[in-house]
Specification:
TIM Barrel; two-stranded antiparallel sheet
């Protein structure tokens, strides 16, 4: 493979009733398991961002996809971790450092239901299941609305806070809402992150900048066969890259 999809998930849980804001970001446990099994049966291995880096740097080649979860929902531990562990897959969950053990309060104004986030014990269990923790800022702030100092706090302090609380290195970052400017990528690099992911559509290439990696959204409406189309064809590349 010369294209390396980075799958983007949020919640893995039973979807709320129709009409609920952001319902599409909740993938059912059954759908998630079917998607992972489809990849596994085709000889594709799911990996964390740390596991993906050697492929993006050209040091390794093979059939792998990166798997990411935004925000740090407890239902990722409950419903995704057992499937990933059983298949020998890795993943990265981007955690909001000052919201550990709380809820997705940043969604309240949109009418999104309050959902529990992983606490420290949950995050330790997540890592014991072979999964990785990354940073999603300190407070899930839109970086493009902040001044330089505030943006630096969100990017750099979240790394230090997670490393201190969890006693593990945190090498990977994700821009909240996918919003960022070039200076934010430079801040992430200066803070010591090895990669940063966006919401730009497309499969990652070895030529991509490691601090502006595109991803492949997996939504509630994505069946397993469409996921395979997204992974193995130029479907996402055409939508995210004008030159593709």
């Amino acid at each position: 493979m010369d294209h390396y999809p980075i799958l983007m998930y949020h919640q893995i849980d039973h979807p709320p009733v129709r009409g609920t804001p952001m319902r599409g970001m909740v993938v059912s446990p059954q759908a998630f398991e079917r998607q992972m099994l489809a990849l596994h049966r085709l000889g594709v291995r799911g990996v964390s961002l740390s596991g993906l880096m050697p492929y993006l740097r050209g040091e390794k080649s093979g059939r792998v996809v990166g798997i990411t979860f935004d925000d740090g929902y407890r239902n990722n531990l409950q419903h995704a971790a057992p499937v990933l562990q059983r298949l020998g897959f890795g993943s990265t969950c981007y955690v909001v450092s000052r919201a550990i053990g709380q809820t997705n309060a940043w969604d309240a104004a949109l009418g999104v239901p309050s959902v529990n986030l992983m606490d420290e014990a949950d995050l330790q269990a997540w890592m014991q299941a072979g999964q990785e923790v990354g940073s999603h800022t300190a407070n899930h702030r839109d970086l493009t609305t902040l001044d330089e100092r505030e943006a630096q706090v969100q990017i750099a302090d979240s790394k230090r806070e997670l490393e201190s609380r969890l006693n593990v290195p945190v090498h990977h970052f994700c821009y909240p809402y996918g919003r960022y400017r070039p200076e934010h990528a430079r801040m992430a690099q200066a803070a010591g992150y090895h990669s940063a992911t966006t919401t730009q559509r497309g499969r990652a290439l070895r030529s991509d900048g490691m601090l502006e990696l595109p991803r492949v959204l997996v939504a509630q409406s994505t069946p397993w066969w469409q996921l395979l189309v997204k992974v193995f064809t130029r479907y996402e590349d055409r939508r995210g890259r004008p030159s593709a």
